[in-house]
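Quick one:
INPUT:
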C-alpha cells in the first residue's frame, strides 16, 4: 500500500484525466481483491471512476488520438442547452438598454449576481460564475470609469502648456527654484471612517461613526502640498481652518523657511505652478495680495503660472501667468493685466 501511494504521488503531476484513471485501475488490478477501494483512498478518485478504468483496460477502450475523452464527453455548454441565454444576457449589458424604465437592471450595478438573478427572472438557470464566463466570451471585462472626455478643446490649449513648460525649463536651467502647489484631499478629524487599513487584533476593528456628518465642534484637516521640482521633494502643511489664499501662501512661506532656502541658498527668483481655481485661483485677489506680501518679505520676484482648467470654456486667460515682483510692487496677469509701477495692486479686469 505504501509503495502504491508513493508511485502515484510521483506519477500524478504528469497524468491527465484518462491516464490517471487507467493508472489507478492498473494498480487496483495488481492488488487483487479490495484494490479498487484501496486506490480510491490513495488517489481520492471515486470507486466508479476506477471501475471505469478497469473496464476500459479489459475491453481495450481508448480515446481517439489527440483527445482525453470520447467525442461528446463532458457537460454540454449552457448556450447549447439554452439557445436564448446569450441574447438575453447581451440585452442586459448593452449600454443602450441602461436607463430604459422597462429594464430590470435600471440604475443598478451590473454585478454577476444581479445579472444571474435577472436571467433567472427570464427563466434561465445559470450561476454567477457561468455569467462571468459568458461575458468574457463576449469580450466584456470588469472596468472602472476612465476620465478622458474633456469637452471642447481650445485652439491655444497645447500652446499654453508649452509656454508654462518653457518657463519652468528656463528657471531650472538657471538653477532657480520651481515648485508646484495644490490643496490635497480634505479629511474629517474625529471618529470618522477614513480610507486605509492598520494592523489590529483579529475581529477588533476601530469602531467609527456610521455617518460622516461634519461636527461643527471639530476642525477639518486641510493639507496643502508644495512639490519642489528641482529636488524632487514634497512638503505638506496641514491646516484645521479653511482653505483660503492666506493659508495657501502661508504654506509656501513655511516651506521656504523650513526647506526651500536651505536647498536654494543662491535663489534670486521663484516660480510657482498652480491650478486655476480654489485658494490659489488666478482670479482670487487675496492670492495676489498674499503673494505680494511674500515677495516683499523674501525679497524675491515670484512668477506664478496657472495651469489651464478643463477646456470646456476655452478661456485664453486660463494660463494666467502672474508675477509678484518686489521691483515693480505689482502682481499682474500675463496678457490680461498690464504691469503697474504702483505699490498697490491694479483692479481686476476681465481677461481677453
Amino acid at each position: 500500500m505504501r509503495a502504491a501511494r508513493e508511485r502515484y504521488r510521483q506519477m500524478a503531476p504528469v497524468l491527465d484525466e484518462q491516464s490517471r484513471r487507467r493508472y489507478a485501475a492498473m494498480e487496483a488490478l495488481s492488488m487483487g481483491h479490495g484494490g479498487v477501494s484501496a486506490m480510491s483512498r490513495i488517489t481520492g478518485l471515486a470507486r466508479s471512476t476506477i471501475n471505469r478504468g478497469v473496464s476500459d483496460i479489459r475491453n481495450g477502450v481508448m480515446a481517439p488520438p489527440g483527445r482525453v475523452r470520447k467525442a461528446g464527453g463532458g457537460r454540454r455548454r449552457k448556450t447549447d442547452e439554452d439557445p436564448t441565454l446569450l441574447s438575453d444576457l447581451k440585452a442586459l449589458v448593452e449600454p443602450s438598454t441602461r436607463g430604459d424604465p422597462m429594464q430590470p437592471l435600471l440604475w443598478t450595478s451590473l454585478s454577476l449576481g444581479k445579472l444571474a438573478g435577472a436571467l433567472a427572472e427570464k427563466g434561465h438557470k445559470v450561476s454567477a460564475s457561468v455569467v462571468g464566463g459568458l461575458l468574457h466570451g463576449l469580450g466584456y471585462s470588469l472596468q472602472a470609469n476612465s476620465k478622458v472626455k474633456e469637452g471642447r478643446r481650445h485652439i491655444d490649449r497645447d500652446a499654453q502648456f508649452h509656454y508654462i513648460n518653457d518657463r519652468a525649463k528656463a528657471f531650472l536651467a538657471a538653477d532657480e527654484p520651481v515648485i508646484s502647489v495644490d490643496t490635497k484631499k480634505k479629511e474629517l478629524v474625529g471618529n470618522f471612517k477614513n480610507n486605509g487599513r492598520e494592523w489590529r487584533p483579529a475581529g477588533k476593528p476601530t469602531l467609527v461613526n456610521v455617518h460622516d456628518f461634519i461636527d461643527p465642534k471639530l476642525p477639518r484637516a486641510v493639507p496643502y502640498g508644495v512639490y519642489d521640482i528641482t529636488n524632487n521633494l514634497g512638503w505638506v502643511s496641514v491646516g484645521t481652518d479653511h482653505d483660503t489664499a492666506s493659508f495657501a501662501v502661508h504654506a509656501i512661506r513655511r516651506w521656504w523657511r523650513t526647506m526651500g532656502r536651505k536647498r536654494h541658498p543662491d535663489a534670486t527668483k521663484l516660480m510657482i505652478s498652480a491650478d486655476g481655481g480654489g485658494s490659489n485661483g488666478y482670479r482670487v485677489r487675496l492670492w495676489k495680495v498674499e503673494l505680494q506680501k511674500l515677495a516683499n518679505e523674501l525679497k524675491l520676484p515670484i512668477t506664478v503660472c496657472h495651469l489651464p482648467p478643463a477646456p470646456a470654456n476655452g478661456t485664453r486667460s486660463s494660463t494666467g501667468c502672474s508675477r509678484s515682483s518686489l521691483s515693480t510692487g505689482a502682481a499682474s496677469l500675463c496678457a490680461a493685466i498690464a504691469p503697474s509701477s504702483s505699490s498697490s495692486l491694479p483692479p481686476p479686469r476681465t481677461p481677453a
